[in-house]
Design brief:
Strand content: 15-25%
Structural class: alpha/beta
Strand order of the largest sheet: 1-2-3-4-5
Low-confidence stretches: none
CATH topology: Transcription Regulator spoIIAA
CATH class: Alpha Beta
Radius of gyration: 12 Å
CATH superfamily: STAS domain
Order of helices and strands: EEHEHEHE
Amino acid sequence: MIQYIDQQLIVPKTIDFENAEQIYQSGLAHIQQHQHFPLIVDLAQLEQGSTLSLAVLVQWLRQTPESKGLHFKNVPEKMLKIIQACHLEDDLILI
């Protein structure tokens, strides 16, 4: 599931229909315990940047102060294209 290492959420290599709810809940628990924002979400291990994985990230973002409490790093190329196609590049902070 989600790991919390060096003040970053580490997303697992796969988010699919079988585990999306578990990953969402696991990440949400970390976000709700977090006191200081922004929180970095590292996507380096994520193998497929699908619309489903992006939906999980957006739902997490909505649970943060002013919906701006997450910064995303190591975003997969495919996910970057989905973000651009959905015009989300102004809503997501990519580092």
